[in-house]
Amino acid sequence: RPTRKVGKPATVRRKVGQDEAWLLHQRLHHSSWGTIERTFNVIVPPMPPCVICKTCQAKRVPHPRQPARASRAGQLTHADTWGPFLSAIYYEGCRYIVVFSDDYSKYRFPVFMKDRTTSTLLEAWRLYYAHMRALNVELAAWQSDGGPEYVSSEAFDFCDEHAIQRLVTVRYTPESNGTAERVFGVHIPRARAMIAAAGMTKRAYALAFQYSLWGYNRSHVKSIGCRPVDMLPHPHFEDVHLGRVFGCRVWARQPDVHVEDKMSPIAREGTFGGMSELYKGYIIYYADTGEFES
Question: What per-residue confidence (pLDDT) applies to 107?
């Protein structure tokens, strides 16, 4: 014997006028008309837009995901700045991070700055430009948001002088600068996790952040099907397997000039502080003296 479903009896939906529809709309906290029809079992007539909903419940239109627009390394560079942070150790006095991301290879290069002035930003760009030239990459275009240091007349004059095309995204729309914004959304949490796991001071964020980018540049990236460094003209980078656990104990062999005599210790205990794109060796921190060795 089939069981009988127990529920509310079917009722005929009644039509309401605009005045009653507006009242129901307000009673249900400015919900959509479809929600009102299902909740009160009514048929709402065609309604004009609610001015309150337009001004108070506006949502941004999602930006469609775009494929890489560049056809070679250096054709388009994305840049973004984050901060202020605490004054960093190793990069003493630096409180801001600017990251340059190559659109074609996904290669990422961080520069740590003491302020957010245009002159400091241009010095960071010169460092990135010299680094990419050493990799046989010519830079052509530079895209960023509308931050004051990026849109100053000094910045535009610099780009005009060096034949660099400037692209500026829409203000207060981080989605249009997603390639650069995504760098911090991924690597800041990773740096935070590395610092917490190592029990190091928060001022070590610069070391952890640049080490996270160092590993990313040598890791397989699904969107390009290989490592970012493999997309550069002459890849000759260290393998990611040379890395160590951030914050682990290491013993660094000291130069002979620093050894007092034949029977003195020849290694010094320190803390592994990661690796950088600018140095081939490890960065080691000696907590007893606050010194670094790289």
Answer: 94
pLDDT of residue 94: 92
Report the C-alpha gap between 229 and 226 in whole angstroms.
8
Which residue spans within 145-239 are E strands per DSSP? 165-168
Question: Is the whole model's pTM more than 0.70, yes or no?
Answer: yes
Which residue positions in the chain have pLDDT lower than 70?
1-11, 62-68, 172, 235-237, 257-258
CA angle 159, 160, 162 (to 5 degrees): 65
DSSP conformational letter for 148 = T
**C-alpha–C-alpha distance, residues 167 and 155, integer Å:** 12
Say how many C-beta atoms besides its own lie within 10 A of residue 262's C-beta. 6
Q: Taking the C-alpha atoms of 124, 127, 128 and 130 in order, what is their torsion angle to the nearest 10 degrees?
A: 160
Please, what's the b/e burial string for 105-136 (b: 16 or more CB within 10 A of its CB; e: otherwise)?
Answer: bbbbbbbbbbebebebbbebbeebbebbeebe
Among the listed residues 147, 140, 98, 106, the one whose alpha carbon sits nearest the alpha carbon of residue 123: 98
Distances (CA, A) of 123 to 90, 126, 168, 208, 279: 19, 5, 19, 22, 19
Return the structure tokens found at 95. Answer: 């409180």
Provide the pLDDT for residue 114.
Answer: 93
Closest to 198 in 3D by CA, of 240, 276, 250: 250
| pLDDT score of 137 | 93
Q: Is 51 left (phi over 0), alpha (psi -120 to 50) or beta?
A: alpha
Pick the closest to residue 277 from 227, 216, 220, 221 (CA basis): 216
pLDDT at 257: 63
Which amino acid belongs to residue 293?
A: E
Structure confidence at residue 63 (pLDDT): 60
Q: Is the dihedral of CA 244, 277, 280, 242 positive or negative?
A: positive
Residue 64 is predicted with a pLDDT of 63
List Cβ neighbours of 168 (8 Å cut-off, separation of 6 or more).
143, 144, 145, 146, 150, 151
